[in-house]
Specification:
With 406 residues, the chain is α/β, with parallel strands linked by helices. It is 41% helix and 14% strand. The protein folds into 2 domains: 230 residues, Rossmann fold, CATH 3.40.50.2000; 158 residues, Rossmann fold (3-Layer(aba) Sandwich). The protein is built from 15 helices and 13 strands. The chain is globular and about 65 Å long. The relative contact order is 0.13. About 1% of the residues have low confidence. Pfam families: EryCIII-like_C.
Length: 406
């Protein structure tokens, strides 16, 4: 029996897309360990993995994201801030996870492709193959979020860059991993990668080589999310801003007002930081909850008003649901631009959301059949990408190459 390990960062949008792969690998007879914080571990345990919990030094993801210099464009200052956080996190987590696996090294390791430094460094130190896990748009020399001037601003002379690069070099030296900072960054986008979107959704997808495996979404059913059922008698709209930038009472009030006079059923997930009691004039056909089992609602939904986080976008497309995208940060804006470009929905800038503009957008998407048709075509691309079985095939191919049997 092969031992496969996942090392992930504590974020719902990073953990959820891997749960289906865990279940597939366990069903194929592999032993799967999963290193992540206990708070994020329920889903992977449900999928059959052995949780290897660690204590994170990172602030809650939503707080870190709220501290960005600009939510519309990722700046060099934001980049420096993120790198410093990863230095601190890696120095704390690396020794702990090295000890946790001392009596049972994995045969292959899957780690977050952008921020999973600990997993990447341990795989190098242990001399085992590794796979990058990419839950967002992928990057190469032809397109990346960081170099596209639309979504990011990079200043090579920024005062903090040299300092943080020096801190990374010192961290690598202290950990004794045998890599220089130049080697570390030079290999950051090399090796096989699992990308949880279909190639057809990727900007310049045709330019990505065979090491990029666009397997599409690999989520599991998330049975612990609770239950929900609708009447099925009228069109259904789901509204959610995700788990980070959702502290916006005004937005949800605008949704209530926009949908009040329309003959649709509406389900709104407002998160933990908005008090539903502060919403006024909520009609009977608008259901307001802190959280909803998103997959269950999307199975019946006709439209999704979403922040355009990639996990939500892929889940919506998997069920053939077009979107009105209202991105809350630059990464989500790239996702929203892509879905609008492909005719899978429309985008509204968060500062331009009014009762009138929101109502016009949802009426347009629900009323124009071409959106539903293009979404169904993308749904087929997702099906053909292969999902969790295709991802498991990639991982097993590395085991074969490494001469590891079950």
């Amino acid at each position: 029996m092969s031992h496969i390990a996942f090392f992930n960062i504590p974020g719902t949008g990073h953990v959820n897309p891997t749960a289906g792969i865990v279940a597939e690998l366990v069903a194929r007879g592999h032993r799967v360990s999963y290193a992540v914080t206990a708070r994020q571990g329920a889903e992977v345990e449900e999928a059959g993995a052995t949780l290897v919990p660690y204590e994170t030094t990172m602030r809650q993801t939503r707080n870190a994201m709220n501290d960005l210099e600009s939510v519309d464009r990722f700046t060099t200052g934001d980049f420096v801030q993120v790198l410093r956080g990863l230095v601190t996190e890696t120095e704390a987590v690396y020794p702990a996870l090295d000890r946790a696996f001392a009596d049972g090294r994995p045969d292959v390791l899957i780690h977050d492709g952008l921020s999973g430094w600990t997993g990447r460094l341990l795989a190098h130190s242990w001399g085992i193959p590794s796979v990058r896990s990419i839950p967002t748009l992928a990057a190469n020399e032809h397109w990346s979020l960081g170099t596209d001037g639309e979504y990011a601003t990079f200043e090579p002379e920024h005062a903090g860059l040299n300092a943080v690069y020096g801190e990374i070099a010192a961290m690598l030296d202290r950990l004794g991993v045998g890599l220089s900072a130049q080697e570390f960054f030079g290999a950051s986008e090399s090796g096989p990668a699992l990308v949880f979107i279909p190639r057809e959704f990727q900007f310049k997808g045709e330019t990505f080589g065979e090491d990029f495996h666009f397997v599409g979404p690999c989520w599991s059913e998330r049975r612990f999310d609770g239950e929900w059922s609708g009447s099925g008698e009228r069109p259904l709209v789901l509204v959610s801003l995700g788990t980070i930038h959702n502290d916006d009472l005004g937005f949800f009030q605008t949704c209530v007002d926009a949908f009040a006079g329309l003959a649709w059923d509406v389900v709104m997930a407002v998160g933990d930081r908005v008090d539903p009691g502060r919403l006024s004039g909520v009609p009977g056909h608008v259901e307001v909850r802190a959280h909803v089992p998103q997959l269950q609602v999307l199975r019946e939904a006709d439209l999704f008003v979403t922040h355009a986080g990639m996990g939500s976008v892929m889940e919506s497309l998997s069920f053939g649901v077009p979107m009105v995208a209202i991105p809350q940060m630059s990464e989500q804006r790239a996702n929203a631009d892509r879905l609008a470009e492909l005719g899978l929905g429309v985008m509204l800038h968060r500062t331009e959301v009014t009762v009138e503009s929101l109502r016009e957008a949802v009426v347009t998407v629900l009323g124009e059949p071409s959106y539903a048709q293009r979404v169904q075509a993308m749904r087929e691309h997702i099906r053909q990408a292969g999902g969790a079985p295709a991802a498991a095939d990639v991982i097993e191919s590395l085991l074969v190459r490494a001469g590891v049997g079950r």
